[in-house]
Amino acid sequence: MMMRTLISLLTATLLFATGTALANNVQVTNVEIVSQDAALDQYVIEFDLFWENSWRVSDGPQNWDATWVFLKFTRHNQHDWHHGEWYRASDDAAADGHVFPAIARVQIPEDRKGAFIHRAQDGIGNFVLEGVQMIWDYSGEDLQDDAVLDISVHAIEMVYIPEGPFYLGDNGSYPNSFQVAGFNGQPFYVDSEDEAITLGGSNSSNLGNGVLVGDDPATIIDNFDELNTANLPADWPMGYHAMYVMKYEVTKAMYSEFFFTLTLEQNDEMFPDNCQVDNGGSYYLEFEDPYKPIACLTWAQIAAYLDWSGLRPLSETEYEKACRGPLDPVPNEYAWGTNGWYGAFHNANDLIRENEGEANEIIIDGVAEDAPNAAYVSVYGNTDHHVRVGIFAASVQNPTRLNTGATYYGLMEMTGNAEEAVISLSRSDTRDFSGLHGDGEVAGSGNASISVLQDWAFVNAVGVMRKGQFDTSTVSRRFYMAEIGTTMGFRACRTAP
Question: Taking the model in full, what pTM does it have?
Fold first, then answer.
């Protein structure tokens, strides 16, 4: 899912050492700085990009998968990494001078913190791009033209979620699920964005949560109910607008990539004390199972990773859109669109696996070709009960949404595997979330910058768990508040350019 390649650029001489690190199934290889325009403060960086199980479809979900490609740099031997910005003068990356095969499309957002690279035409299968050339604009950096640099190129697999309406809630049996205010269980239809919404009360135009006055306080996560209302601001990321969401949960290998680019002081703050780390030293983290989701981070560590990568958290309403898409809800449904799973509950230890611990680990016994498989895996905090991300899609011969556990749009393990937290609309401070993206730069302490911490409400109780005990991890089920000390897994999001 992510790799790092280091390059040293010496005055008038290119000295580069390339390497390949495979994390799940995306690779950036053959990285080379091919030219410099000192007058424009630009380098041209060339690389090859590859990932498996790529797609673009014009029917059904009408979407595609992509990679979010971004750049880190440091002066040679200083280990003081910063975020690079791609050059952007227009919406047309090719016209701006970036070079890539005709089978691909490159989208660079206005903040230039990365680029989305994806198929230009419909297709399914492995996606291979050779000779991609991206222009790094270093004019905003304090760099001399003859500086000796180390450069790191990263790629994260994402999925495009198109703009459009969707439902919140599924008229199921679980409490604390969204619905039309008035407590009849009717799902709430979202057909717009950028509009303030009233939460709670009994008006049928309001978004309710099924909480009745007198309900057990221990089960209530919101500060609104059938009698008390609250306001959801218009800039809350509702999910109607188009967005990109990570295809998989963030893995231990991906967190290791982040950890490597931190200073020793930042390492101390970002060291995952709640994880089983085989060998953690200066700048390095080694895990026995690097391709499993990292499910032992604090909110502060999650926020730092999101800021560093130029991404942001999901809101809980975006989470339901990403799972259900535009389809009518099924009561008590899971991410794959039904309310059942294959067989009795099992955990990862009950699955017979091949290539265990490797990026190509698959299940060779214990899954079915015609039934949901993903709920086999407990979402308890015990990481021994997790499996590598994407394993179900790789373990059946004819993968479908049902047997891989995929959402309507192709996201994996949205109801299964590690617990994930999202920004909640439960409290007045969390409702201030506006979808601000990280800027790629963490603070000297290693924490995310103050601006994003405030927008993401990562200074207080910040969200709700969208996965809990294995038998209740449905799309609409909202669990407890994720407090400051809670440890969990996560995936990232970005509003589409």
Answer: 0.93
